[in-house]
Task: inverse folding
């Protein structure tokens, strides 16, 4: 099975099985929010289209799109800080994610 433990390959088509496999990730640090951890790993590993597909599976599984990291930031807070993340931010907003942190956090 291919999944998050496989190296990233640019241009590779990801199956639904591989995209869903990110739901099974767990943080190595028990102090980290598991939902935020999974969202960050998916964001860092997937192309925007695959990430959008992942978000549908994530929400369907009853996971928290607005989970916060140890600094009180949501995934949308973090993604919005990145210059080239417009497609990711749009996918998050479409799925129902919200920004929490104020500018400068």
Result:
């Amino acid at each position: 099975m291919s999944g998050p433990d496989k190296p990233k390959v640019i241009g590779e088509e990801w199956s639904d099985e591989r995209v869903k496999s990110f739901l099974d990730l767990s943080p190595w640090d028990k102090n980290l929010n598991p939902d935020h951890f999974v969202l960050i790993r998916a964001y860092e590993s997937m192309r925007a289209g695959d990430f959008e597909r992942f978000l549908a599976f994530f929400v369907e599984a009853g996971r928290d799109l607005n989970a916060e990291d140890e600094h009180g930031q949501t995934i949308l807070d973090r993604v919005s800080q990145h210059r080239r993340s417009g497609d990711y931010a749009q996918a998050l907003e479409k799925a129902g994610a919200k920004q929490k942190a104020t500018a400068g956090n």
Notes: The chain has one domain: 18-95. Residues 18-95 form one domain. The mean pLDDT is 88.
